[in-house]
Design a protein that fits this description.
The chain is α+β, with helices and mostly antiparallel strands. The protein has one domain. 12% of the residues lie in helices and 25% in strands. The strands form 3 sheets. The chain has a 10-stranded mixed sheet. Strands 4-5 form a two-stranded antiparallel sheet. A hairpin with a 7-residue loop joins strand 9 and strand 10. The termini are far apart.
Length: 272
């Protein structure tokens, strides 16, 4: 049985030098949101990422190269992540002032498989020309660049959760669109968009949903702090309660297995 969630409101400021693992170990018995300041001294008003730590820290479930769901060690587990802010010089809507970081606009990563993308991006600060640094939309952006040769849209919101407001535009001919009622069909390689908090969150599923949580590759979700803002790509478990919908790259569609032939006796007409 899970422990009842502590309803006492506690705001905890964590120095950015601490890793997510240390934070979770230190706060394992405090089931309240963690607020982490982003490290970006040259740009004012950088938003804080809020990680709502789960009552129980769980093992991850990642699909291996054989297509089997494999349990891995216990990893940071959150009920909600709020930290997906996005702005670039062409499509941003924020009025913040300061030096603009024009970083990573031409980066291309290996999208031949979900595993390849994970291995190519893990623990990297991927800015993707985002004013706010390594935000979760930055990672989605380089996937769209690398896979579909085009940009993502937050539908004029500047927020990760806005990506489902113009789903047809983001999907184009390259992705299938699913909504929250298809949560049980999530598979490795799906890009999940979450509501929650002010900005929401987006990341790539590394497996299917297990007991209400999915293992997620993403940025600005408690990883190594980045000098330009946000946090490096890492892996967490996240609850699917706040899921809005998701995008599936068509190249990652798993074909349905061929039905096995049914034995048939032509003399009797009986199917055995």
């Amino acid at each position: 049985m899970k422990k009842k969630k502590n309803t006492k409101q506690v705001n905890i400021k964590i120095r950015v030098g601490l890793s997510a693992a240390i934070v979770i170990a230190a706060l394992a018995c405090i089931c309240t949101p963690i607020i982490i300041n982003n490290l970006q001294a040259n740009i004012p008003n950088i938003p804080e990422v809020i990680l709502d730590i789960a009552d129980e820290q769980l093992p991850g479930h990642i699909t291996n190269d054989k297509g089997e769901l494999e349990e891995v060690e216990v990893i940071p587990t959150f009920d909600e992540v709020d930290g997906g802010l996005f702005e670039d010089k062409d499509t941003g809507i924020s009025k913040t002032e300061g030096e603009y970081y024009d970083l990573g606009w031409s980066e291309v990563y290996d999208v031949s498989s979900p595993e390849a993308f994970k291995n190519d991006t893990i623990n990297k600060c991927i800015i993707a020309n985002n004013y706010y640094g390594a935000q979760c939309v930055s990672l989605a952006r380089v996937f769209w660049w690398s896979y579909a040769d085009r940009d993502v849209s937050t539908c004029g919101t500047g927020m990760a959760k806005g990506m489902m407001e113009c789903a047809d535009e983001n999907a184009g001919d390259d992705f299938l669109v699913f909504w929250a009622n298809s949560v049980n069909s999530i598979q490795a390689g799906d890009w999940l968009v979450f509501d929650g908090g002010q900005y929401g969150h987006i990341g790539m599923a590394l497996g299917s949903v297990v007991n209400g949580y999915v293992t997620l590759l993403g940025e600005n979700q408690g990883g190594r702090p980045c000098e330009e803002g946000g946090a490096a790509t890492n892996i967490i478990n996240i609850s699917v309660k706040k899921l809005i919908g998701f995008y599936r790259p068509k190249d990652y569609i798993i074909p349905e297995p061929e039905p096995e032939p049914v034995p048939y006796n032509p003399d009797t007409g009986i199917v055995k």
